[in-house]
Design brief:
Elements (H helix, E strand, L loop, with lengths): L2 E6 L16 E6 L15 H11 L16 H6 L10 E2 L4 H11 L5 E2 L34 H16 L9 E4 L5 H14 L2 H6 L3 E4 H4 L1
Parallel strand pairs: 1-2, 3-4, 5-6
Helix pairs in contact: 4-5
Length: 214
């Protein structure tokens, strides 16, 4: 059916398969963030998609090479020159966490509104450097994993679970590396070997990519 207004949330995660949604309403509000993750195109032959774009879109749309399996619906809308409005008030993260993102990507324009005292875990961000780790370039990242880093993550989790300050806390392990499935598989194997299944269930230990958590 059709609607007067359709709101498409998390459009920065939606690939081109979401385009038909635009035909469902007279007005569409597209919500997204081009500073966050984009479609992963897992299992997609990118060469085939590029060939289809050249065949059917060249000469018909602006910048046809942009219409690939890794572009989001939000990216498409952004190229069309529609008016935009930035939502600046942030309620989800404590000020220290959104403050890092604010400095990194938003030029300090985000207003953190969550009370920092809402959590007893301080500090909210803890940098931890793993020494003597081999650097893996993107071309090899899909087939090689960083074992030293994965083992360090598991040791940190073991220490936190043994610490009374983390009693009842749940854990999410996110691999940010491009082509991170090999690293995620290694992390999961190490987690399953290091922790009792009852603890994994109790602590809701999850491991995946940023897109999967998003």
């Amino acid at each position: 059916g059709r609607f007067d207004i359709v709101i498409i949330d998390e459009a920065s995660l939606a690939d081109l398969l979401a385009l038909p949604v635009l035909y469902m309403a007279d007005k569409v509000i597209v919500v997204g963030d081009d500073k966050q993750v984009t479609p992963l195109a897992v299992g997609t032959n990118l060469d085939t998609v590029d060939a289809l774009a050249r065949r059917f879109l060249a000469g018909r749309v602006k910048e046809p090479k942009l219409y690939n399996a890794q572009i989001s619906l939000y990216d498409v809308i952004k190229t069309m020159g529609f008016p935009t409005h930035m939502l600046r008030e942030h309620f989800r993260c404590v000020p220290e966490i959104i403050g890092y993102c604010n400095r990194l990507s938003y030029e300090g324009s985000i207003r953190p509104l969550r009370d920092g005292s809402s959590t007893n875990l301080k500090p909210a961000i803890v940098p931890f450097r793993v020494e003597n780790v081999e650097i893996v370039d993107d071309a090899a990242a899909e087939t090689r994993a960083n074992r030293a880093e994965a083992e360090a993550v598991v040791r940190l989790m073991q220490a936190m679970i043994a610490d009374p300050a983390y009693e009842g806390k749940t854990f999410g392990v996110i691999s940010m590396r491009s082509g991170s499935q090999s690293q995620i598989r290694l992390l999961k194997n190490l987690i399953y070997a290091a922790f009792d299944p009852r603890d994994i269930e109790k602590r809701r230990i999850l491991c995946g990519s940023s897109a999967e958590f998003q």
